[in-house]
Amino acid sequence: MKHFRYILWLISLLAGGVVSGDDISPDQVRQAIEGGVEFLKATQLKSGSWGEEEVHRGGVSALCTLALLNCGVPIDDPALERALRFQRTVNPTTGPVESNYVASLQLMVFCMADPKKYQKEILRNVEWLVKTQKQTGKRVGSWGYPYGFGDPSNAQFALLALYEASRLGVPVGEETWKNAADYWMNTQNIDGSWAYTYVPPELERGQAPGTGSMTCAGIVSLLISAEKSLLADARISGELFLPCQRQDNVILKHISHARRWMATHFSVARNPGNKDWQLYYLYGLERMGRMTEQRFIGEHDWFREGTAQLLSQSKTAVRRDRVVTCWKGATSSEKIEPISTSLALLFLSKGRYPLLLSKVQTDDKSEDWNWHRHDVRNLARYVEKFWKRNLTTQSVHLRQATVEDLLQSPVLYLSGKDSPLPKDETQLREMARKLRDYIDRGGFVIGEAVCPGGTFDDGFRQLVQAIFPEPEQSLAPVPAEHPLWHAEARIPAEYLRPIYSIEYGCRTCLLFLPAAPNARPSLSCVWELADELRPGNPHSEAVCGELRAGLNLGRNILAYATNRELKTKDENFSVAPQEETPAANLPGVRGKLAVANLRHGGGCEAAPRALRNLLLEASGRLNVRAGVLEKTLPITSPELFRYPVMFLQGRNAFRFTPKEREILQRYLQNGGLLFVNSICASKAFDEAFRRELKAILPDATLTPLPSTDPLLTTKYGGFDLTRTQVRHPQKGLSTETTRLEAATVEGRYAVIYSPLDLSCALEKHPGMDCHGYTVEDAMKIGINVLLYAMQ
After folding, report:
1. What secondary structure, in 3-state letters, does 281-341 show?
2. pLDDT tens figures, 465-501
3. Please, which of 277, 338, 450, 561 could form a disulfide with 444 given CB 3.0 to 4.6 Å?
């Protein structure tokens, strides 16, 4: 079957020609990565290597091993075990095989594979790289070949490797980072770019034209140098936290200048400024885009466009009876397929890291939104340690972004000292509408005042009122039992802080953190100072406790907001929603997927978008081109009998009137289907529904569906639902037999009931304390029910 999937994928590529950014599907990306992994495994030698050149023995193998690790190949996979054993036989720090490239790639491999197991090799390579940094001449701060000038390509690999080691706590002297920063600033061209060249002493800087590959290398190297050599945008003085201490540094100006050059010269089809080394350039482009926390370079979505380019360049073949995918560049080393394939895989695998949260820019002219420039990035790195996966963050300009752009991120973080509101009323309404649309579609918003003495609190409260004008929606204190205080780490009572929330539909969807009293630092300030928790830090236990509590609270918030169910970036390629036609403009239900939400007193609109989301998803999967129609109707509405399916949801106790029971009985006996679920497995709703159904259909009994029931299989063209994932409060996910019950009338199902939550999952708001199905399985259950109704 795996071979068959690759053949189908190959046919789709051939039939479609060049893949455009709009045509990419997550399956294509996944299959390309899987095919590339198969290629590397098929071309690996028994020794664990991929064939080694004399100059950089072990370098090709280290690059291939790094690609396999980043593609998620398990550490105990035989191919990876062989590769790591081979790497241990190579010592690139001594003798004739001495090589900066190999030492750097190998160091990154060992850091990612198993830092404890390879601690000796990691320390050896770090010591050697620090020692071999150029200390004299015009290339001070660079790295190069053992007996030559330093160059930017060697320099970037060495800095990347030292950076990965430093993230594990391996000490690298401040002088190393400072010298590296000086080297990159001193070799930058006047136009902002960098070139690969050994510049003789008599020539002036900037003589050689810049290239995309070296400019990406320069940006990333300066970012690393700045992170390691600059002070944070906040301070700790004794027991006091001092927020909003923004540090200006010339390094950041060099980075901005280079980013402007990249925006002007952006390409994925070639290496800008150089006809060669396209795949090497794309490997650097991914790193630049991810580490600058930008989705767009200029007007270009770098990952989408780069992915489309790589898919169009991929080749599929059979190696050792395996269907594989590979890439082959046009120049020297890139003609070696394991090298070019590894570079392509590193772009695809690392570039698709899930986006955890986005920091919101609200103003073109002010930097008020970004007082602590490392806060969300530091929080993401802290969360990575516990979630055991690579994560990324971005910044997003709220006015320029569409709702679909915002939905790329599950969490938006707005912060500042002063009010985030635009002065223009039209812009304010648009800002509120955009954020409401984002929340309606599953997004989560955090607003925080990060500096004392400003107007952010008042401005954000006004924004919340504009987002939620309904009188029943207002900010309220987060209660002590809320999962925010204990979802993953319990926050000690002495570190609790005021947090206000909006409860909308099934869950909390917005948090507001006002300026904290008693000189307590903002969460942004704490996140900015995350590195102060390093081993051996000089701070008191009270200060360390504040830091831990702030980071853990951020982690709890993100766990609650996302349920750890994050999309990789390629999965967002298909998020564009279908057009929603207002029901009032539809002439009728003929040809449309039509279901009505039944109004009752038990919380029938607690999940207002559940049914609409189900119908939109179903219309796409079932190819219903006429659109969808959903209304919330009272049982007494004369329109009731126009709908073949009625949707009943709730979370509170309720009671039908005798007249309503009579109408529902006629509806069900005349062929109607009632599709019911208890929001968050509410016991009150469950008891009320079972009582009411007994009154409506005295002779019918709700009976659990066996796993072999056709409705839970693919018989009607739907999904195999014999086993599904269920979320349990405080316990997480488990795979279980699907729990649906049904009542029959004249041999057909008239009522299908889920005692577990579907609605919050369909809303894409399944809270951690909500007992029910995952978003994906809730959609599948709903579609299977609709397919049954269509029989």
Report:
1. HHHHHHHHHHHCCCCEECCEEHHHHHHHHHHHHCEEEEECCEEEEECCCCCHHHHCHHHHH
2. 999 988 778 899 999 889 999 999 999 999 999 999 9
3. 561
- Give the total residue count for the chain: 791
DSSP three-state, residue 777: helix
Torsion of CA 73, 79, 84, 86, to 10 degrees: -160
Residue 179's alpha-carbon distances to 173, 222, 328, in angstroms, are: 10, 11, 36
SS3 state of residue 596 = strand
Distance of CA 304 to the CA centre of its chain: 14
Query: With contact defined as beta carbons under 8 Å apart, do 600 and 635 qualify?
Result: yes
The predicted model scores a pTM of: 0.78
Which residue type occupies 330? A
Alpha carbon distances (Å) from 123 to 117, 162, 229, 753: 12, 10, 21, 60
CB atoms within 10 A of CB 584: 6
Higher pLDDT among residues 317 and 120, named by residue: 120
Cβ 349 vs Cβ 67: under 8 Å: yes
Query: What angle, rounded to 10 degrees, do the helices at 59-70 and 26-43 form?
Result: 140
Closest CA to 347 of 281, 299, 405: 281
Mind giving me the DSSP string for 128-143?
HHHHHS--SSTTTT-E
Question: CA–CA separation, 565 vs 264, rounded Å?
Answer: 36
SS3 state at 492: coil
SS3 content of the chain, % helix, strand, coil (to 5): 45, 15, 40
Q: Which of 538, 493, 539, 495 is nearest to 518 (CA)?
A: 495
Contact predicate 438/358, CB 8 Å: no
In whole angstroms, what is the distance from residue 355 CA to residue 109 CA?
A: 24
CA dist 557 and 744 (Å) reads 44
| Angle of CA points 21, 410, 160, to nearest 5° | 70
Closest CA relative to residue 399, chosen from 368, 443, 434: 434
Give the containing element (helix H, strand E) for 761: helix 759-762
Q: Who has greater pLDDT, 323 or 576?
A: 323
Calculated CA dihedral for residues 377, 382, 386, 391, nearest 10 degrees: 10
pLDDT at site 4 = 34
In 420-540, where does DSSP find H-type helix?
Answer: 425-440, 456-467, 523-528
Handedness of CA 203, 204, 208, 212 (dihedral sign): positive
The two structure tokens encoding residue 457: 């609190």
Give the per-residue pLDDT at 633.
Answer: 83
pLDDT of residue 149: 79
Percent of the chain exceeding pLDDT 70 equals 90
719: pLDDT strictly greater than 50: yes
Element (H, E) at 359: strand 355-361
The structure tokens listed for 241 are 């936290």
The token pair at 221 is 């190297």
Q: How is 4-47 classified by DSSP, letter by letter?
A: HHHHHHHHHHHHH-SPPGGG--HHHHHHHHHHHHHHHHHH--TT
Beta-bridged to residue 588, according to DSSP, are: none
User: CB 603: neighbour CB atoms within 10 A?
Assistant: 19
Strands 593-599 and 628-634: parallel
Burial of 163 (0-12, 13-18, 19+ CB in 10 A): buried
Report the distance separating Cα 73 and Cα 69, nearest Å. 6
